[in-house]
Amino acid sequence: MSRTDTLRPLIGVNADVRDNNGIDFIGTGLKYVTAVIEGAGGIPVMVPTLGDVDEGGELHVDHLIDRLDGLVLTGGRSNVEPHNYGGAPFRPETLRDPMRDSTTLPLARKSVEGGLPIFGICRGIQEINVALGGTLHPYLWELDGVNDHRMPQTDVMANRFAIRHPVHLTTDGLFADIAQGAGIDGHEVMVNSLHGQGLDRVADGLRVEAVSDDGVVEGVSMPGSASFVAAVQWHAEYNVERHPFNRALFEAFGHASRRRAAARAGSDVA
Predict the structure, then answer these.
(1) 220 phi and psi, to 5 degrees?
(2) What is the pLDDT of residue 61?
(3) How large is the average pLDDT for residues 19-47?
(4) How many other β-carbons are positioned within 10 Å of the β-carbon of residue 234?
(5) What residues act catalytically?
(6) In terms of Cα–Cα distance, which of 86, 97, 95 is closest to 136?
(7) Is this prediction's pTM over 0.90?
(8) What is the CATH number of domain 3-265?
(9) Which residues, in sequence order, are CB contacts of 139 under 8 Å at separation 6+?
(10) What ranges do the domains of the chain cover?
């Protein structure tokens, strides 16, 4: 067995600021961590949400990117604030996480620039789009002809994350290739849906990879990037072991991360 057969890339998983009985905590969902381990074959490390508390007024993301082999941008209940893409202010009741925005947006942009493999999920696809110059619909369910893609109101987690609708894969796109390589239909896959925001103007350089029946952009990639850049609007981390396409996405991301790890270690991986 060669060294690269057992190489496990170091994959960052970003975090939210969360209130617990009046005390702020930084945390991320367990499902993202297990998906990195089981789907991507990586070693997960949490990337803290630091906002602008770092010396010099910003997180030194270049130093972080130099130490990682991949990055997962997770979902979250908060929404990317509209001032980051020139939109109108949120309504008062809209959940937000400005510390996450100020950390993750530059992290996403510099990860793409630095060739760090990146996989965005739900809020993560929105962050990648905004970081690269795109815009969002802040209240997607209010658009004419668009279905309500928000999380079902139930305490049963299996029902929250249950499969709800199909997405259609772009012919000859990255997602279609990944599906076909895994022996899956490369035209359509079934996914869950737990989001209130959605992509409006897709950033330059991103290619639409998946679209729902009602026209919502559900997946993107970046063909001209130095490494793997992909993102989905659904929660691909949930039941990754039982959803063949979600697993195939994590495996493709994991392979790209392993290639970076091998290059950093001075090895080769096919």
Answers:
(1) -140, 160
(2) 80
(3) 95
(4) 29
(5) 122, 235, 237
(6) 86
(7) yes
(8) 3.40.50.880
(9) 196, 197
(10) 3-265
